[in-house]
Please model this.
Amino acid sequence: MRLTKPFIRLPLQFDAERLAVEIAALGESAWLPHPQGNQGNTALQFIAAHGDPANHATKGPMLPTPHLERCPYLRQLLASLETVVGRTRLMRLEPGAEAITHVDTNYYWQERVRIHVPVVTTPAVRFVCGDQSVHMGAGECWIFDTWERHNAINDRAGQRIHLVIDTVGTPEFWALVAQGERQFGATAGTAIPPRPLPFDPSANPVLVTERVNQPVVMSPWEQRWLLDQLLAEMDSARVNPQATRRELRAAVTQFQQAWRAHWALYGDTPAGWQQVERLLGQLEQALLPFDQRLRLPNGMSVTEMIRQLALRPAFNPDLAERDPAPSTAPSPAPIAPQRRRLERPVFVVSSPRSGSSLLFETLALSPDLWTIGGESHRVIEEIPGLAPADRAWSSNRLEASDADPATANRLEQAFLEALRDRDGQPPQVAHGLRMLEKTPKNALRIPFLAATFPDAYFIYLYRDPRETISSMLDAWRSGRFVTYPQLPDWTEALRWSLLLVPDWQALRGRPLAEIVARQWQATTTQLLADLSALPADRWCVASYDQLVADPQREMERLCQFIGVRWDRPLEGPLPLSRHTLTSPAPEKWRHNAAELEAVLPLVAEVAQQARELFGRPPAVRPTPTASPTQNPPAPAVLRLPQFESTARGALPELLEMAGSSLLLSSRTLGRVVLVRSRQGQVSTLFRTLPQAGAIAVGPRGVAIEGDYRLWRFQNQPAVAQKLPPEGSHDACLLPRAVHYTGNIGCRELAFAGDELWLASAHFSCLAVLDAEHSFIPRWRPRFISALAPEDRCHLNGLAVAEGRVAYVTALGQGDAPRSWQERRLDGGCLIDVASGELVASGLCLPSAPRWHEGRLWLLESGRGALGVVDLASGQVETVIQLPGFARGLSFIGPYALVGLSRLRAEAELPVAAQIEQPLCGVWVVDTRSGQRIGSVRFSGDFSEVSDIALLPGLAYPDLAEPEAGLNGSSFVLPTAALEEVDPRLRQVG
Model:
């Protein structure tokens, strides 16, 4: 919900110690993984959809779960809010974890405020909202603006547990909010003293929980209210071109008029449902030309917000509870058949612990595949009738008969709402999407999935049964894979883990090794039988061993079969999957050899069947044809981000001569790129780093800014020696630290000696970092009167000369919020830091000041120009004008390396009039002659270079992404400590 202040503390104080005691009594089994799979995040639900503690949906009646009955003080807390209570849960962060920066964009939160009551916390825990952050103390009661980007960060030892309550509010609740303490404003600190709520042993309040939260068919009045809010915010964002806004408004108005007319005819009755789907499909098509062209002030895409708030929640036939009288209204015109929203989905099936997570996470790198980010346990089991609890706890087995039309439609819709591409972005179209899915329980659901998705492909992952059963044993013992902690009549010491097989009751009282062996046997027997019943061109077999030994070849083979592209080389070993317990090794199963020896005869027959099937190559992929009821997929459906690089001229020679490589970033693509050369051939290595922007190279490593964070990378030569092919790399940059700055608009980084400095555009200052604060302001221009996150002058560049920060660039000289935009084409300036005096002014979007060989250089980005500054006169002499928006500057001797970006559609800059087709890449300029002598150019969807930096002395490096498995298996110790390491493992580098 939007609020006028980022944070409001309500005048209530709860007994956090009492809450912690009640929560601890629930036990660890009550906690479940975060619904989006965020690392270090777990949840425990007290009020949930249909009262199911495992149901994280925001649709359906919100009812108490069994956990709430065991927490009397927590019930008193909820009652004291005097409101209708919606979804309520505990959110737990492990040490070092965060909630991930995001905006609550779902329809559910547009009219629901989110209440936080910290239960377990430390002073180091920070809650960030927009440009502000607070520490929420234990037992306090807070609300905040969920429409702003926000995050919770726990970077110290100890868990953080918050009680999180969603509510639409009541007059009594909003009166309480009116008495709360506003943060960060003129009224900050103005509030009545908090009222304590002690535990009352005699109290047993009745809670009022919400029962209705989404419409069957959205009324035109609610729709207009939602859309009017979005379009008003769109207009307030100055970056949005007026013509584009006008065109989108016209398209939305036409849809609203049609929706209003339809409602007058049918209301929300089933007689009009077919036409409802048609109108929503028309809106989806109308939005496509505007995708990624318009933004809200909080950074979200306007078209995606229209989809989330007014398109996807507009029609929920599963919520209808009545059979209305036949309509007497005239029938609509015949509607052309709609093509399927999910086309030819791909399901990876195998017994548990076969390595399917590794296959899934690798195959998900295809640019043509979409996933829900993890496994679909809850997506499937939240649908009534599909969970074991709804089927007398028989098993996870689902038949084709379970795929009735309503269930199939609901499952497809649930998948669609959660789909993301390989970069974590939601789809911009609603039809023709290729989904990749992996859930071990699906090994027992093949007939159901094949009936729900008649054009689906299945990939069976084969792994040596000894390795698989051994890993299943380890999983049971770890306690991390418990699936049904309250399975009726299961009284064994270890709670039921992994999938629930038919006749599981017969395993009670048996040794664990036999339980696991029978689990594998039942799963594999059923899986092989179900696959054999499918057409031969609908499924294939993948090899776990081949995936580990030669992932590139295996991916190309599988992608050819399922008909998707594979566009990235796998140059090293695959990172460990998120579900890996210990590093894989061919003989790792032998630590369970004694137990396996006793049970392998039980599975020998089906193991032989699986071996006979193993090695079967994929069938020749059939040419997809559109069914008579489907239109062929539009080409735009499969057009996802793709990019290529081409090197020209002297760049390879220069890099090899300098024994160096080039590191560049692209904020829009969330990538960093290593440009390397060997024997005259340039190699570009792409690595994912969210919103990667400013780069600095210092004496102890590399710093990269992105997504409100600064990553510090350090070269580990010993690790580089082990990267395949052996001996090919001379450096490996591993992440060693991350610092959360908040949204300060960091636009440039530079090392002055060992100290890292940054230019904050939002706070109009230079700053440094320490271990306790977001940032420490050190300097700001004379014309900036105070620190404020208002982007007054857009301070965006800094230059270091002789070990000190010497010069900065800014896009304006005003002291009002975003005042630099008033003269963005000629208001730029260069400032001497020591004196505070202007050195040069009248510049067109200056950036990247650099002190090199006794001279000061900079870019005028809006002109695509590289210039050198005459410090005496303040004149900037243009050395060369280049074909693109110039950003990022580095040097190799007399040669300048300049980053160029293609112009955004709304850009009205001098460079646009100077060239026909702006380019993207890095250009090499001989500063002595002003001539271009080489480049590396990017094509496709790579349109923006954010920064570039030379990596001196690192000729052929690699860079490990923060989540890469390499970080978990590489250890750097002090030299003295290496003496204590086993000599077989020791390597000094």
